Fold this sequence. Notes:
The protein is α/β, with parallel strands linked by helices. Helix content is 27%, strand content 23%. It has helices at 65-73, 100-104, 106-116, 134-143, 157-163, 170-182, and strands at residues 3-7, 14-15, 25-29, 32-33, 58-62, 86-89, 121-125, 146-152, 186-191, 197-201. The protein has a four-stranded mixed β-sheet. The protein has a three-stranded mixed β-sheet with strand order 1-5-4, with no helix packed on it.
Amino acid sequence: MATLHETIAKSLIRKHKRIDSWFISRYGFNIYRGCEHNCIYCDGRAEKYYVEGEFGKDIRVKINAPDLLRRELDPTRKRKPMKKAFILPGGGVGDSYQPAEKDYKLTRQVLKVINEYNFPVHMLTKSTLVERDLDILTQINNNTKAIVSFSLSSVKENIARVFEPGLPSPLKRIETLSKVKTMGLSGGDFFTSGNSVYIRYP
Length: 202
Ligand code: SF4
């Protein structure tokens, strides 16, 4: 059972100098720091990411993330509005759909803000909880573009159980991806064992 530490962040969005060639995003941010999914290969534990406490058990929750995002995307607050480019919520130090999200619903709120300001989104997750937000992701897709990507270490249950102990089974993730496709969104899988490869499903 994780301990949730609510925090007030000072800023949110990270801007890349160039569009990330893997995730095609120019902007990113984390809502959670630390991740209850606790994949054993996760590099979020590396010292350079400065995640305090025990990575899979001490989860920092940026409870003001939706307000910060609104402030940072609002073009009337900027001399130079941000270029329209893909935003990738979540990343290496915390899945945006980890268990804490069930109650906090911060990812859902930030998606609404992204939609309000007409930015495209690339949602990368390992959790089937993303199904809850397919309604808002569809709205984003209708306005700009929404992509939902999963990552898998293996399609074999027994192997995934070792490497990704806190996650739904690979089969369940693939079923969720199928729902993503049924809703008309783009989606695919990052396979993370051996050489990374991205498979986009038509
Ligand atoms: S879901 Fe992602 S962030 Fe969370 S532990 Fe696994 S690899 Fe790390």
